[in-house]
Amino acid sequence: MSHSSESDASEKTTFEREVLTWDDFGTASRELAFQVSKSEFMPDVVVAIARGGLLLAGGIAYALGVKSCGAVNAEFYTGVGTRLPEPIMLPPLLDEASIVGKKVLLVDDVSDSGRTLAMVVQLLELGGAEVRTVCLYSKPGTVLEPTYTWRRTPLWITFPWSALPPVELDSGEFEL
User: Can you tell me the mean pLDDT for 125-136?
Assistant: First the structure.
């Protein structure tokens, strides 16, 4: 999920964007895995914050050779520049017993306000995990700077997996 710090922006508003390509994503996931490896933190499990962190978590897990993966479902942003008052957890929930005493690498696409990341870190730590965080992007003013970050930007980010609208079967056409 792409996030913005421009709360009054609408989907029809044009503003400068940071655009992540699929090639950049491949480079970023390897570079982030290298940062993690270099820090000597070897996670027992990689946990994604769905949906935005799912692809990055998979790429990093493969690059680190970690086979144990999971996901938590959280919602905060409901559209471009619109969000709920507080982030919330959505089902299905992570099996907390599986993380007790584990080193967890928590992965998301961006730490914008940082509130979702902070909420999930707290949840995992209360469950007995040692947690490090990794995000493709971090924004100014985030309440939780990720342990590992690929880039920092104040801009709205267009991710390759969310750049197009959902597929609609009734249109009769396939859009690339």
Answer: 96
